[in-house]
Write a structure and sequence with these properties.
- By secondary structure, the protein is an alpha/beta fold.
- The protein is about 50% helix and about 10% strand.
- It has an eight-stranded parallel beta barrel with strand order 4-5-6-7-8-9-10-11, surrounded by six helices.
- α9 crosses α10, α10 runs parallel beside α11 and α12 runs antiparallel to α16.
- The longest helix is centred in the middle third of the chain and has 22 residues.
Length: about 450
């Protein structure tokens, strides 16, 4: 793949793009889709010069704008409380451009508008994907696949780490970067602050809802004009004990009291219903069957919707569940289902064995501290391999196109089935009626003024 110099970048744009008064016009759409966008997105992520990376990221965002692709908030759609639908929210840890292409391909085939790309705070760190890079990858994938319309990019698990002093300021800094990059959907995970030593549920949840309210006030103070960032809260850490009605009600009561009546609050609530991120790994590396508590999910989702005017509840850690269960989510007031690990698994299954073993050897050396005494090697590798995407980013980029095609094709098959089960098909028109473009113009980089 061509690594741009400043001059070769400008030369490669010639005849395909026109920049006038800080706006980009795509003049040769066929060339852009066929070859130019591939070179641009590679350099947006891996060019050694920051000035070139920043210029190309600006270009891709402005190209997307000209082609009718824009980052958006799903808030207006959630305000309608759509029924019989669970919006798929897809965390992409590696091969983000190719996985994103598969998502857009499936969405086009199913006339789907209600779907979300997301990445968690922790995932940004170990996959080496900062907000500006991740959002650029998603927009580039949309350009490549001929998408048009809103793109929902979400910060998943923007989590407060209680072991870090004053971590709320770190999260605010991340929120600012994310919103500037087009993340207009954010999940505020302050559930780590729940204090079970307190005498009642309200007091146990106090630090959780007060911190979520503080972050909400901050977001409303910096969000772009005409955009209401869609927000979610969380009452129980995923992988812990199941959430209760009392926890839901006490959190929402305290959150609303802390936030006040003037500001718009959260639209959804993440709860714990029996799943764990990545599933429960057995000694042979396979995933244990999980009994997901759909009764709790349905009950709390209905309370959130009917009594508190939220869109519903959110299910995390669902991608490793049996696919035949997925059609239960839309009927259980589950507005959003978060999916990640199964798509990562497909990637690892289909990459060349040599690269796979190279990643595993690295993990055995550099992530050994994460291995529990009771873990088999298979259990350790399964849980740790998500951390191979960052250190081996360039090698994943360098995979043969034949391998990438196999991965994309397999993912499209899974996405088609999953999206259909979740009720997301034929949601494009409803999304387009409610979500309109709001463009945030950024100054043209000096490099491109030439």
């Amino acid at each position: 793949m061509m690594v741009y110099s400043k001059d070769s970048l400008l030369s490669d744009l010639s005849g395909s793009l026109e920049i006038e008064k800080g706006r980009v016009s795509v003049r040769n759409r066929e060339r852009v889709k066929k070859e130019l966008i591939d070179r641009l997105i590679y350099n947006a992520c891996l060019n050694p010069e920051e000035e070139i990376r920043d210029a190309v990221r600006w270009l891709i965002r402005e190209m997307a704008r000209d082609l009718g692709i824009f980052p958006a908030s799903i808030f207006a759609y959630y305000s309608e409380k759509p029924e019989n639908l669970s919006v798929p929210a897809i965390n992409i840890r590696g091969l983000t451009y190719d996985v994103g292409r598969a998502v857009f391909s499936s969405a086009k085939a199913g006339n789907i508008g209600a779907f979300i790309f997301e990445i968690a705070r922790s995932e940004m760190e170990y996959t080496y994907q900062e907000p500006a890079e991740y959002s650029t990858l998603i927009m580039a994938a949309g350009i490549k696949e001929g998408w048009a319309g809103p793109v929902f990019i979400q910060g998943d698990h923007f989590q407060i780490r209680k072991k870090i002093e004053n971590d709320i300021e770190n999260v605010k800094g991340l929120i600012k970067k994310a919103i500037e990059a087009g993340f207009y959907n954010l999940d505020l995970d302050t559930s780590t602050l729940v204090d079970l030593s307190q005498p009642n549920v309200y007091e146990q949840q106090r630090k959780n809802f007060e911190t979520a309210a503080e972050l909400t006030r901050y977001i409303r103070s910096i969000e772009p004009k005409e955009i209401t960032v869609s927000l979610g809260g969380e009452i129980g850490e995923i992988g812990k004990q199941n959430s209760t009605e009392e926890e839901l009600r006490e959190y929402l009561k305290g959150y609303r009291e802390s936030l006040g009546k003037e500001l718009i609050g959260i639209s959804k609530m993440a709860i714990q219903t029996g799943t764990a991120h990545g599933g429960v790994v057995l000694p042979d590396g396979s995933i244990a069957a999980v009994k997901l508590d759909f009764d709790t999910l349905s009950k709390l989702g209905k309370i959130a919707r009917d009594d508190y005017n939220l869109a519903g509840c959110v299910q995390h850690g669902a991608s490793t569940l049996p696919l035949e269960l997925f059609d239960k989510f839309p009927s259980s007031c589950t507005i959003e289902v978060h999916l990640a690990t199964e798509y990562q698994n497909i990637t690892y299954e289909l990459i060349p064995e040599g690269l796979r073993e190279e990643v595993y050897a690295y993990l055995r050396t550099h992530c050994l501290s994460e291995k529990k005494e009771t873990d088999t090697d298979e259990q350790f590798i399964y849980k740790a391999r998500k951390k191979g995407f960052g250190p081996f980013k360039e090698k994943f980029w360098g995979l043969d196109e034949e391998v990438k095609v196999k991965i994309r094709d397999r993912l499209v098959e899974v996405f088609n089935f999953t999206f259909s089960k979740l009720g997301a098909k034929n949601t494009k028109e409803a999304i387009l009626q409610l979500i309109k473009p709001v463009y945030q113009q950024k100054p043209i980089p000096e490099l491109l003024k030439r």
